[in-house]
Design a protein that fits this description.
By secondary structure, this protein is α/β, with parallel strands linked by helices. The protein has one domain: Carbamate kinase. The chain has seven helices and twelve strands. Strand 7 and strand 8 form a beta hairpin. Helix 1 packs across helix 3. The mean pLDDT is 95. Aspartic acid (ASP) binds next to loops.
Length: 254
């Protein structure tokens, strides 16, 4: 039995049909005998829409209120996903960043994670529940909601995986992993089956945007294996692993 953290990005949970599809995949992973914690992004363009709404009211909104607003997106997707899992016949429990124990510094809109103490998530997993955690958010020392910067859910997922001692952190997106070039522009681009952190960081700085830079640095610091794959296909994706790890020893590769 493995402990798996799965992160689903905004395009994977863009509408209720997508959320139901993701729920099936989560439950399938659980049914294989794994413990599963899920980190979700906001549905589709929700975060952009919230920002537009805010700016249509106040061209210079207070940072605190902006973060309060933006954390709402992930609350919607986490609770709907928990319901979709319930409808599939499994038990799920959703947690905000605060409930999941994400403590950050005070930089609204670009907060850094200081500590993750996911006691409630651990408790849910030990009771046999699937835990769903809102990505991209935490609380500062004052107890106010903070966000981690755009694309921050990847970092939430890796930080949770590290704090839980997970065997792998799977990052589900809308492409089949990491390619040698953008396959939409370069048709001869090839999927990279397995790669180390350093090489990804080099690629990221020349514009690859499959993974948030900070998430890869976090994974590297704690040697957390990542599996980047599509939630729309069953293809194998890309493993981002420490040098010297035999990828076949990792769980849930099929
Ligand atoms: N929903 C946030 C964003 O769009 C966080 C994320 O998707 O990772 O930036
Ligand atoms: Mg998003």
């Amino acid at each position: 039995m493995a402990l798996i953290v799965q992160k689903y990005g905004g395009s994977s949970v863009a509408d209720t049909e997508s959320i139901k599809r993701v729920a099936k995949r989560v439950v399938e992973t659980e049914k294989k005998g794994n413990k599963v914690a899920v980190v979700v992004s906001a549905m589709g363009d929700t975060t952009d829409d919230l920002i537009d709404q805010a700016l249509s009211i106040d061209s210079n909104p207070p940072e605190r209120e902006m973060d309060m607003l933006m954390t709402a997106g992930e609350r919607i997707s986490m609770s709907l996903l928990a319901m979709a899992i319930h409808a599939e016949g499994s038990r799920a429990h959703s947690f905000t960043g605060q409930q999941a124990g994400f403590f950050t510094d005070a930089r609204y809109g670009a907060a850094h994670i200081k500590a993750v103490r996911p006691d409630r998530v651990k408790n849910a997993l030990s009771l046999g529940d699937i835990a769903i955690v809102a990505g991209f958010q935490g609380i500062n020392a004052k107890g106010d909601a903070t966000t981690l910067g755009r694309g921050g859910s990847d970092t939430s997922a890796v930080a949770l995986a590290v704090a839980l001692g997970a065997d792998i952190c799977e990052i589900y997106t809308d492409v089949d992993g990491i390619f040698t070039a953008d396959p939409r522009i370069v048709p001869s681009a090839r999927r990279i089956p397995s790669i180390d952190y350093e090489s990804i960081l080099e690629m990221a700085s020349c514009g690859s945007k499959v993974l948030a830079l900070r998430c890869v640095e976090y994974a590297q610091r704690f040697n957390m294996p990542l599996h980047v794959r599509s939630s729309f296909s069953r293809r194998p994706g890309t493993l981002v692993v420490p040098d010297g790890i035999a990828p076949r020893t990792l769980p849930n590769l099929d």
